[in-house]
Amino acid sequence: MPAHDFDLFVIGAGSGGVRAARVAAAHGARVAIAEEHRVGGTCVIRGCVPKKMMAYAAHLASDLFHSPTLGVDAEGLNLDWSALRSSLAREVSRLEAIYRANLERSEVKFLPGRASIVSPHEVKLASGEVYSASKILIAVGAWPIIPQIPGAELGITSNEIFSLARLPETLVVLGGGYIALEFASIFRALGSNVTLVNRSDTFLRSHDAEVVRRLLTSLSDKGVKIVAGATFEKITRIGADSLDVQLSNGDHISCSTVLHAAGRLPKTGDLGLAKAGIAVDTKGAICVDEVNRTSCETIFAIGDVTNRIQLTPVAIREGQAFADRCFGNGASAINYENVPSAVFTNPPLAAVGLTEEQAAAKFGPVTIYTSDFRPMKNVLLDVPERAFYKLVVHPGTDQVIGLHMLGPESPEILQAAAIAVNGGMKKADFDATMALHPSMAEELVLMK
Predict the structure, then answer these.
(1) Domains of the chain with CATH codes
(2) Fewer CB atoms inside 10 Å of the end CB: C or N, the chain?
């Protein structure tokens, strides 16, 4: 008889956990996975997918506003919030069903409920059932930060924003990261009056400062009011559909909805990590080594719960590598350099590699190439907004070590360009590539 109930027990059925479970099962392992919420995790249920649908709606609303310039009569078109909300819910349910079906086809046993660690080889479900496994993988992700202030419960987080009963007339967003900026941009385009509040003057701190400044200018031009150097002190209900937000600078803002979007922390609070001697850092993130092993030899962790890089593709790659290494024929090392990322604002921002500031700190003075241009679409629609691309180039080797883009379709262009940056291509290689005209992407090979 097997020594344990399972070869692998996965806690958390998000993108990383599901990938690890399915790959391990394909290698012949007996696998179980526990999930306290819906299958699919943050990305599918309350993150990337529904947010991208909202972003599509926001971009469409912006395009329709300018469509008469191209002879398209959009008069009379209005946003039906309930229809958008229903579409979001249907898509999330469709994807969740696919995730569940894939687990079933892979013969992974699904166990509903929150699981916690009992010992290096045991987990306990909220129902009280205890299971043993040769290896345990923690993939529970992260959870929105809610400020510890009076009235904080009157606000919502990105978890709840997709199911609002109505489009907010006035929205106040707390935060300076990508979640805060994305929702500020989306809801402004959909018709809400939006105020963005950040405790410091620094927004999107991991991105190139010059590009971020241009994005903030664009958001401000579109009507997003930006308040820097302040945070929430207190939230008070002043009517059936009205809230008062008191800021640390003494100002008050009246609004219908408050969105807490000041970041996410690993969801490790009730996992029983101490029972297996699992170390965490000051933010509650599980400490792991280069193969995602925790301080307990039989327990591993991947994805946002480690707070290494909070991106879905990273969690998926880590889940794949873990399963291949532990149950297959080994796995290649994961390269955490040159991980592409995007901020789905309007206009969107996309980047890969080092920022100008990071490169200068590492190599000294670097060579910068930029293109500040008006995309053809904006010219044709009579939109004054400009796009901005930046190449960061190593001064000694001519290698492109950073690429930063702000403008329409930047994330779609960036994915292909990231291959060139990751492959160590030089500025001369960009220059030697023929331009594709007319396109925005051609600016990548025309910078002098």
Answers:
(1) 6-144+265-327 (3.50.50.60), 152-262 (3.50.50.60), 347-445 (3.30.390.30)
(2) N
